[in-house]
Amino acid sequence: MNFQNIKYEVAKERKEKPKLKILIYWAILSFLGIILIKSYIRPQPPHLSETLDFLQETLPNFFAGAIFYVLGFIYFKGLFRSENSLIRRHLFAFLFSFLGLTLWEYIQFFLWDYPIDYFDNIMTAVGNIFTIFIIFLLRLK
User: Fold this and answer.
1) Could you tell me if 124 and 98 are in contact, meaning their C-beta atoms sit under 8 angstroms apart?
2) Where do the TM regions start and end (predicted)?
3) How far is it, in rounded angstroms, from Cα 60 to Cα 116?
4) Domain coordinates of the chain in residue numbers?
5) Is residue 135 a contact partner of residue 87, using CB atoms and an 8 Å limit?
6) For residue range 91-113, what is the model confidence (pLDDT) as tens digits?
7) Could you give the dihedral angle defined by the CA atoms of residues 125, 130, 134 and 140, in that order, rounded to the nearest 10 degrees?
8) Which pTM was predicted?
């Protein structure tokens, strides 16, 4: 597969499935959520409660999981021209998102000695599950 073929397949699918735009908007909204939390909320945390402190630390992983899931779901058809099974598509998107972000947690541990936060991995999975729920509500195939 070359880049032009992938681009063509994704553009073709966007024309065939107009509801796919809603999924793309979800990814953009998730990206804006990460920027908002990391740029404005974390530098000056309000410390309202332990729950809000927990959420400001883990929500970026929720949104990142959603973004990578959407990317894996959209680009599956362009990357793999084989049978476009919905189960395979979801499996690829989940593995792409969850394993990629979990691997990133371990890379940070070994390169920069950051502690591994398992709650980040859990929030990544929750972001993936929430995105699956959105896809099923949109009835995308």
Assistant:
1) yes
2) 22-41, 61-80, 92-112, 118-138
3) 15
4) 3-138
5) no
6) 999 999 999 999 998 998 899 88
7) 20
8) 0.87
